Amino acid sequence: MNRKFIKEIVIDALFLALIVIFSYVPYIGLITIGPISFTTIHLIVLIAGVLFGTKKGTLVGFFFGLFSLFVALTRPGTFDYFCINPFISILPRVLFGFLSGFIFDLIKKYVKEKTFYLICGPVAFGLTLVHTTLFLLSLYLFGFIDILGISGAMGLTSLIEGDANSVFISLISWLLIAGALVEAGVAFVVTPLAYKALNKVGYKYPVKEPKEVATE
After folding, report:
1. Distance (Å, rounded) from C-alpha 103 to C-alpha 116?
2. pLDDT tens digits for 120-163?
3. What is the pTM of this model?
4. C-alpha–C-alpha distance, residues 81 and 35, integer Å
5. What DSSP character marks residue 145?
6. Using CA atoms, how far apart are residues 73 and 155, in angstroms rounded to an integer?
């Protein structure tokens, strides 16, 4: 077993441990207000993506979704309980992890490291809003509309009272106003700081220097 493989396992285990801690320690990764939870776990996915790229971002996104499912099992009677449907808990988080790693990888191909550090925060802000959008879209399609019939088979439709569309509109308003922008703001600040700090201790996923254009 070579050193590179062992290092990969250690890094994966570290991210998994962080996901577990953030998922189960109260008010660290999941902050519950009424029937809805806001999260800081997306920061771990962003950090995995910004440091190690697409594969690691996707894997950590899967960890995020998997433990969202596990935690949801303990929260019947809230909208979080919809996350026992894997198309609501896992699918949007995997897509979020993939997009995070892919976009950061793409940017690194075209900018210098100082520039990358400056735009890292705004990109993390935007990706966090993408995560919220993906989650809400999955919740609407696979939860409220239930296009695959999974939520109905799991008995989740009892969580919806009254007209589904009006409930969903209220949910969107609450999340966007009270939560999504705050989550994105935290990502804007934390992601570049974590990237810079971890680079200093050796967790460096190098930014490629753009090729200089030859001039006469």
Report:
1. 12
2. 999 999 999 999 999 989 988 998 888 888 888 887 777 665 55
3. 0.86
4. 9
5. S
6. 13
The owner of tokens 């990969």 is: 8
Query: Which amino acid, residue 95?
Result: L
Residues contacting residue 196 through CB under 8 Å, at least 6 positions apart: 117
Give the pLDDT of residue 140: 86
What would the pLDDT profile of 13-43 be if each residue is shown by its tens digit? 999 999 999 999 988 888 877 666 788 999 9
Between 166 and 119, where is the model more confident?
A: 119
Please give the Cα distance from 132 to 42 (Å, whole number). 10
CB 73 within 8 A of CB 127: no
What kind and span of H or E run contains 104?
A: helix 91-108
Q: In angstroms, how far apart are the furthest CA atoms of the chain?
A: 72
Of 58, 54, 70, the residue nearest 20 (C-alpha): 70
pLDDT at 152: 83
Q: Pick the closest to residue 131 from 96, 104, 106, 159 (CA basis).
A: 96
